[in-house]
Structures are given as structure tokens and as C-alpha cells.
Amino acid sequence: MSDSIPRRLWLEWAKQIQSISQAGLAYSKDMYDLERFEMLRELSVDILARYTEVETEKIKSLFAGESGYATPKVDVRGAVFQEDRILLVRERIDGAWALPGGWADIGLSPKEVVVKEVKEEAGLTVVPVRLLAVLDKKFHEHPPEAYHIYKLFILCEIAGGQAEAGMETLEVGFFGRDELPPLSTGRNTSKQIERLFDLRHETEVWLD
């Protein structure tokens, strides 16, 4: 593979190949077609292993757990403000800071997910107010990722509780737009958080 081709382009190709192979393995009946789709899956794993920091075996296990028609994963984040400061939590996994949130759970609405995540990670009870943004992770400056991910940012108001760290977090704090701490860039970027400061006063949803 030529290194003159941007890494992000290789990653997008690999994810598309994975999507095609996953659908083919789910819906094809012909044994020869199934063999070809499995070869496509192996090719996508090889590309992802080269252009991400994820080990080949881990990529294989991630993909092996996926079946049926491939769809993007959904990451839900809470935008909780206290005057002109936004709530961030320091992640235990990397020691960097992020908006409270995580993967959307089966059986829960985005509003229910954000309430659960803010409570678990920051100790606060919140009420979802409105959707601020729906972003495609590939258009933003995140580290390479094996999955295609949509990110939902939901404005929330504090209704109770006490700001405190949870099982997955080390610290909780409120920060102004010009005093953001080192961020967990796999979860959110400085540009995204800075934009949320403006979006809370607007009526349109940021789609990107």
C-alpha cells in the first residue's frame, strides 16, 4: 500500500470493505460468496491494523462480534453548563478530560443515555433540554477509529446531585472556554467543546 495516500482515506476504505463483508456474510448463502466476503473482512482487518494502533487480534475480535447489516455506532455526550463553564470529567482510562457520555445503550433513548452517563461519571442528576449537534466523527480531528461513529451532543440542565467522580472517572470540574484542560481527543475535540458554548444560545442543530 502506498504511504502517499492519506491514512484517513485508507481507514475509510477499510471500514467500507468491512461493511460490505459483514452484510455479505450475513445475507449470502453461496459457500463461495461467503469465502470471498471472509477474504474481504481479512483485508479490512489488515488495513486497519496498519493504519491504527489497534492490534490485529483485537480488530478481528471486534469485527467477529458484529453481524447483520453494518450501521454506525452512536456516542452520546452531555453538555452541562454552570454559568459560563462546561462540565468535564477526567477519564480513568487515559487521564484526559471529556464531556460525560458514552455509547448509546440498547433499550435506552439518547435522553435516557445522557442522564445515565452524567450521573455515573459526574454524580449529577440532569434534565435533557435539547439536541445541540449531530456529528460524523470522520470529519473531525479525532484519532483513527475502526468504527464509523456518529456523535450526539445534548444540552442538559442540572437538577440535583453532587459533582463527584465515578467508577470510570478520576475528577469532575467546570471549565471556561479559554481554560480547557488536556482533552481525551478520542471522545471530544477542543473545537467541538468551544462550539458548544455558542450552540447553547442558538436554536439550530449543528449537523456535520
Automatic annotation (TrEMBL):
One of its GO terms (molecular function) is hydrolase activity. Keywords: Hydrolase. The keyword Lipid biosynthesis does not apply. InterPro entries: NUDIX_hydrolase-like_dom_sf, NUDIX_hydrolase_dom, UDP-X_N. SUPFAM superfamilies: Nudix (SSF55811). It comes from the Bacteria. It holds the Pfam family Nudix_N. Residues 71-201 form the Nudix hydrolase domain. Belongs to the Nudix hydrolase family. PANTHER family: ADP-RIBOSE PYROPHOSPHATASE (PTHR43736), DIHYDRONEOPTERIN TRIPHOSPHATE DIPHOSPHATASE (PTHR43736:SF1). This is NUDIX hydrolase.
